[in-house]
Write a structure and sequence with these properties.
The complex is a heterodimer of chains A (180) and B (326). Chain A is an alpha/beta fold. Chain A contains five helices and five strands, in the order H-H-E-H-E-H-E-H-E-E. In chain A, the strands form two sheets. A three-stranded parallel β-sheet of chain A has the order 1-2-3. Chain A has a two-stranded parallel sheet with strand order 4-5. In chain A, strand 2, helix 4 and strand 3 form a beta-alpha-beta unit. Chain A is globular and about 50 Å long. Chain B is mainly alpha-helical and 326 residues long. Chain B has one domain. Chain B has 13 helices and no strands. The longest helix of chain B is centred in the N-terminal third of the chain and has 34 residues. Chain B starts with a helix and ends with a helix. The chains are: A alpha/beta (180), B mainly alpha (326). Chains A and B meet through helix 1 of A and helix 2 and helix 3 of B.
Chain lengths: 180, 326
């Protein structure tokens, strides 16, 4: 399984790290790149009904140098795998990865004895932070995955003081609703 | 405080600090506004969960960009790659020195104000070329070359349309150009020049529908493909500051600067008039971006050389003739 390579900072400031993590969690810019049908759901998540931009994830950057989040959306064929690895290496640290859909998690329906064309799982080539199951997952599923990644970055939802809603109803103003 | 402000050097230093703060806040606000405008045009809401109305969103984005790793590609030209973002950002601050926000507010009301603005905004092109060349990336280089071709093509009608205003006022001083529009604004008697200026200003700032230098579908991200972290952030800030500057110049030249319509100020201070008109124009430029599709490159260049330049030239000649007759 691929491991995340990240040099720890030379001098550690806990408060500064917390503030930076808060900023990183609330402004994850995904990379514009899709592999298969899951990418259609990813585009739908960015469009008007679901609107990723509400949470600050809507800036799909075309260049890997400017993106923080790689959404592996779809089947990874063996020809595509080296390209995905290159793209991952081109992204600047700190960076995160979401495996979206069953194909990116484990090969999905294409994984059987004797198959020769598919990489069964994105975690074989890049380190994956969050898995979003589904075939394909609905846009709500992707949004929940990204929110889970936010919680992972800030180390708990309650520590994300900037966000104005809470998914688990911990006394904040409005609970999580998707379509308003 | 009084004697600091009366001293020329003190005034400049205080002014420069104010300019630095204002340009940053302005860029942050414009990025937020752009995302909100884009959202509402596309039947979305735009940022709303990070801070009230999503107002903290761009601050959070900036903090994140500061915390990102800065990558310098192995084969890049290190010196050019490092100075390009700085060179892009510094010249867009200079026009703030001469912009007439209100009657007493131009930091230094020099008699070549307009010349200063246009000479410094041209450095932007050089910086983009340096960035594209220094990255040693084919997409960045192509984007930079396109940007240079586009900026040179649109600089000419831009300056020609400005010249017809200068011919009427017989001065390059910003405050005198504003004062000359006491009873009527210049876009009423120079509609062609105003239109040409605004189209060219949109192209000069590389905004859609003229955003060919960073066309995502062809060129990854254009000239800033290889820039990460705050280096990319500087390109971003420079773009939005530039948009503000061209709109402020349009306000000064064609919309009467700090004055109200037909000489009625309606008791509103000049700086409010000026900022209101400027932000209205900025909104129009954003409106363009989310309404029009991108032009093809040959259409872009031939539109400048075959339509805008003859139009601006004819306008200039007619203006000169009319002034000579009167």
């Amino acid at each position: 399984m691929a491991k995340k390579v990240l040099d720890p900072p030379v001098v550690q400031f806990a408060l500064l790290e917390d503030v930076l993590n808060l900023a990183r969690a609330n402004s994850l810019w995904p990379m514009t790149f899709g592999l298969a049908c899951c990418a259609i759901e990813m585009m739908a998540a960015g469009a008007s009904r679901f609107d990723l931009d509400r949470f600050g994830f809507g800036v799909f950057r075309p260049s890997p140098r400017q993106s923080d989040l790689m959404i592996v959306a779809g089947t990874i064929s063996k020809k595509m795998a080296p390209t995905i690895q290159t793209l991952w290496d081109q992204m600047p640290n700190p960076k995160w990865c979401i495996a979206m859909g069953n194909c990116a998690i484990s090969g999905g329906p294409f994984e059987y004895d004797g198959q020769y064309a598919i990489v069964p799982g994105a975690d074989l080539i890049v380190p994956v932070d969050v898995y979003v199951p589904g075939c394909p997952p609905r846009p709500e599923g992707l949004i929940q995955g990204i929110l889970a990644l936010e919680d992972k970055i800030t180390k708990g939802e309650k520590r994300n003081i900037l966000r104005r809603f809470s998914r688990f109803g911990s006394g904040k103003k409005h609970a999580f609703r998707l379509v308003k | 405080m009084e004697h600091i402000l009366s001293n020329e050097l003190g005034r400049l230093i205080v002014g420069l600090i104010v300019v630095l703060i204002f340009s940053q806040l302005n860029a942050l606000f414009l990025v937020w506004l752009e995302r909100k405008v884009a959202g509402h045009i596309q039947l979305r809401i735009g940022p709303k969960e990070v801070g009230p109305y999503g107002l903290l969103q761009t601050i959070v984005d900036g903090l994140k960009l500061v915390g990102k790793e800065l990558i310098t590609p192995k084969r890049a030209d290190r010196i050019l790659f490092i100075i390009a973002p700085v060179l892009v950002f510094v010249p867009v601050l200079v026009p703030f020195i001469v912009l007439p926000f209100s009657k007493s507010l131009p930091l230094n009301d020099m008699n070549v104000g307009l010349l200063v603005i246009f000479s410094f905004s041209t450095i932007n092109v050089l910086a983009i070329l340096i960035g594209g060349w220094g990255s040693n990336n084919k997409y960045a280089l192509l984007g930079a070359i396109r940007s240079v071709a586009q900026n040179i093509a649109y600089e000419i009608p831009l300056l020609l349309s400005v010249l017809s205003v200068v011919l009427m006022t017989k001065t390059l001083q910003m405050s005198k150009i504003v004062q000359a529009q006491g009873s009527y604004w210049f876009f009423l008697i120079q509609p062609i020049a105003a239109l040409t200026y605004f189209i060219c200003a949109t192209a000069e700032t590389n905004r859609a529908p003229f955003d060919i230098p960073e066309a995502e579908s062809e060129l990854v991200a254009g000239f800033h493909t290889e820039f990460s972290g705050m280096r990319f952030g500087l390109f971003f800030l420079a773009e939005y500051t530039n948009v503000f500057v061209v709109c402020a110049v349009a306000t000064t030249l064609f919309l009467g600067g700090w004055q109200g319509p037909f000489g009625f100020s309606l008791g509103i201070p000049g700086i409010i008039w000026f900022l209101a008109k400027t932000y209205l124009l900025v909104f129009v430029i954003m409106w363009f971006r989310w309404t029009f599709p991108r032009l093809r490159f040959d259409q872009l260049i031939s539109f400048s050389w075959k339509v805008l330049i003859p139009l601006a030239l004819a306008n200039l000649i007619i203006t000169a003739g009319v002034i000579k007759l009167i």
